[in-house]
Specification:
TIM Barrel, 8 strands, binds D-xylitol-5-phosphate, binds zinc ion
């Protein structure tokens, strides 16, 4: 697949030098920068907030793909938009009014994404598909990097590909969790066009980033 997009997750980067890490992975060929925001409540881990997103903004000219694992998300959408997010993705379980939240993201001038947990059915997006620019399928339970890919999510990716194609809208179909050169192929075969990679992108440190991203692209070529 020639137009595969790779969105490295900085959750697996060296947090002591995050700016350099974002610059290095950008130079290595990242198409987007995936930023995992966790609140210790919606998921059992705590990461970063909008101030860090703002601080990182000048280290990459690629879109910031911000994955919000926080509840509620609504009070923070504007802050992440102003901090430099380009895509803001939310989980349906994070608030009572998914459609309204997606409208808010769009009104902030950003691309709106919906994230489906492993147990969340693809029909969760059926009646909001006209407000969606990206659908993110979790192939792990959110909260931590380095988990094992769940093949049970592949039929969901295929079902979403059919829904997207029927909609006629330009919607990215992204997969997040356990993506490696070994699992990437199945994601793309099921219909995904964008892959998040944490461990697979950042393993080995900066000198390995070009090879890491090339291995992912080669796996689906
Ligand atoms: C987990 C995050 C993922 C994570 C993926 O909740 O949403 O983006 O960084 O890490 P890997 O690629 O190591 O599974
Ligand atoms: Zn993520």
């Amino acid at each position: 697949m020639s137009n595969l997009l790779i969105s490295p997750s900085i959750l697996s980067a060296d947090f002591a030098k995050l700016g350099e890490e974002v610059a290095d992975i950008t130079t290595a060929g990242a198409d987007m920068i995936h930023i995992d925001v966790m609140d210790g409540h919606f998921v059992p881990n705590i990461t970063i907030g909008p101030q860090v997103v703002r601080a990182l903004r000048s280290y990459s000219d690629k879109p910031f793909d911000v994955h919000l694992m926080i509840a509620p998300a609504d009070p923070y959408l504007e802050a992440f938009a102003q901090a430099g997010a380009d895509i803001i993705s939310i989980h349906p379980e994070a608030g009572p009014h998914l459609h309204r939240s997606l409208q808010t993201i769009t009104q902030l001038g950003k691309k709106a994404g919906v994230v489906l947990n492993p147990s969340t059915h693809e029909t969760a997006i059926e009646h909001v598909i006209d407000c969606v620019d990206l659908i993110l399928v979790m192939s792990i339970n959110p909260g931590f990097g380095g988990q094992t890919f769940l093949p049970s999510q592949l039929p969901k990716i295929a079902a979403l590909r059919t829904m997207i194609d029927r909609s006629g809208r330009k919607i990215l179909l992204e997969v997040d969790g356990g993506v490696t050169p070994e699992t990437a192929r199945a994601c793309i075969d099921a219909g995904a066009d964008t892959l998040v990679a944490g461990t697979a992108a950042f393993k080995g440190g900066p000198s390995a980033y070009v090879a890491n991203l090339a291995a992912l692209k080669a796996a689906v070529a």
